[in-house]
């Protein structure tokens, strides 16, 4: 997540349960979140504090780690998708 380090920002930490949407209203995205499995394939954690990511509401057929290169997570149409970390995109940051 080099972009986050460069911007010195804190990405959002999703705290959701099975019965709630990821965000209030519709989130069409895609927007990067603070979730990754970089260095721990298949075990997702919050980038900022290394705490385990809770319930993950994946898009259909995700997470698939396409070509072994998708280690970051974005939100797209209220579902999560694993994506390549280095690509450009919008981010959701926590409010100070």
Describe the protein:
The protein is mostly beta strands and 96 residues long. The chain has one domain (1-96): Roll (Mannose-Binding Protein A, Chain A). It is built from one helix and five strands. Strands 1, 2, 3, 4 and 5 form a five-stranded mixed beta sheet that branches. A hairpin with a 2-residue loop joins strand 3 and strand 4 (79-83). The longest helix is centred in the N-terminal third of the chain and has 6 residues, at 2-7. The radius of gyration is 12 Å and the shape is globular. The chain starts with a helix and ends in a 5-residue tail after the last strand. This is C-type lectin domain-containing protein. It comes from Plakobranchus ocellatus.
Summarize the SSE layout with pairings:
Elements: H1 2-7, E1 31-36, E2 45-46, E3 72-76, E4 79-83, E5 90-91
Parallel strand pairs: 1-5
Antiparallel strand pairs: 1-2, 1-3, 3-4
């Amino acid at each position: 997540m080099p972009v986050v380090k460069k911007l010195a920002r804190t990405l959002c930490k999703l705290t959701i349960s099975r019965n709630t949407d990821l965000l209030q209203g519709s989130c069409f995205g895609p927007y990067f979140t603070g979730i990754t499995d970089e260095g721990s394939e298949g075990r997702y954690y919050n980038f900022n504090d290394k705490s385990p990511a809770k319930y993950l509401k994946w898009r259909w057929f995700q997470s698939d780690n396409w070509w072994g290169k998708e280690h970051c997570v974005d939100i797209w149409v209220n579902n999560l998708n694993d994506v390549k970390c280095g690509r450009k995109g919008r981010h959701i940051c926590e409010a100070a």
